[in-house]
Design goal:
alpha/beta, 41% helix, 10 strands, TIM Barrel, globular, ten-stranded mixed β-sheet, binds ligand PBG
């Protein structure tokens, strides 16, 4: 007779349960995405994302201050320009909404890392992530030049890191080359390497006003059914100089996070807008325990292998973690 293996021995002891815990949420791994709009005193609620707003720079600074108070180490900026055009010129203007916001944050809060989204979809009339021809096709190579210009302009404004999300081939390499040529050899690139053509981006497109006017993004974002392709995409980005690679969305792609982790580079997972909205919608109706569900989702992303979690829940979660730590220090919990 062999003894019954009792996995429950440790599990049923609350104190011991803690010492065998394999992963945990850390404030230091959270990145908080923010939408900055042109103008003053703007705080437009994003209807499909309760708790998230389009903020003008003045209000953005208040939000950043709040994020710093709970210990958030980095924000990811998306711009909503006052004016859009065919080739998204406001995306690389020195006085663009993102460039001005980066300078303002850096001036007021030099200690928080500012990461910028490098893409064209919020800045073009047609809403695609690149320049298009008369047939409405997105042109890869002419877009590369613009993306490089955007990245360089963000670096001049003081961004700590750039995050290209347009899913154009060769995007990371051309941005790396342009940054280096402008002496920004120390500005890293967080590449949206495995970015799927996902329906989970729906609410973001309301938040950023970036829904394509025609067609879809299937021609440049990845097919949701593919996994090997994510590895190929990510390998290429690494060869081209990516410092951090990203999987996006996160929750429906935990298997991809696990595979990408094996490549040995820091992995960021983007817990996207639709993932946020689903939780909020159910929580508002009292159908789920919001805090527990959020923690479970973010922990699953961590467990899958993500080092960095980009999430609209960042401020909320950091607040909880901070409170818990303070309670422990006071002898509670
Ligand atoms: C822009 C971009 C998108 C997201 C991040 N960068 C939208 C898209 O590709 O349509 C989505 C983020 C989210 O859903 O939270 N290229």
């Amino acid at each position: 007779m062999f003894p019954v293996i009792r996995l429950r021995r440790i599990r049923q002891n609350e104190k011991l349960r803690k010492i065998v815990r394999e992963s945990s949420l850390q404030i230091n791994n959270l990145v908080y995405p923010l939408f900055v709009a042109e103008g003053k005193n703007i705080k437009n609620p994003v209807i499909s994302m309760p708790g998230i707003y389009q903020l003008s720079c003045d209000n953005l600074l208040k939000e950043v201050e709040g994020a710093i108070k709970v210990g958030i180490p980095a924000v990811l900026l998306f711009g909503i320009p006052g004016q859009k055009d065919e080739s998204g010129t406001q995306a690389y203007s020195d006085q663009g909404v993102v460039q001005n916001a980066v300078r303002a944050i850096k001036k007021n809060f030099p200690d928080i890392a500012v990461i910028t989204d490098v893409c064209l979809c919020e800045f073009t009339i047609h809403g695609h992530c690149g320049v298009i021809n008369s047939d409405g096709e997105v042109l890869n190579d002419p877009t590369l030049e613009l993306l490089a210009k955007i990245a360089v302009s963000h670096a001049y404004a003081g961004a700590d890191m750039v995050a290209p999300s347009a899913m154009m081939d060769g995007m990371v390499g051309s941005i790396r080359k342009a940054l280096d040529a402008n002496s920004f050899i120390n500005i890293p690139i967080m590449a949206y390497s495995a970015k799927y053509a996902s329906a989970f981006y729906g609410p973001f497109r309301e938040a950023a006003g970036s829904a394509p006017r025609f067609g879809n993004r299937l021609g440049y974002q990845m097919d949701i059914a593919n996994s090997d392709e994510a590895v190929r995409e990510t390998r290429l980005d690494i060869e081209e100089g990516a410092d951090i690679v990203m999987v996006k969305p996160a929750l429906a792609y935990l298997d991809i996070i696990r595979r990408i982790k094996e490549l040995g580079y820091p992995v960021a997972a983007y817990n996207v807008s639709g993932e946020y909205s689903m939780v909020k919608a159910a929580a508002m109706r009292g159908w789920i325990d919001e805090r527990k569900v959020i923690e479970e989702i973010l922990l699953s992303i961590k467990r899958a292998g993500a080092n960095i979690i980009i999430t609209y829940f960042a401020k909320e979660v950091a607040g909880w973690i901070k409170k818990d730590v303070e309670n422990v220090a006071e002898g509670g919990l």
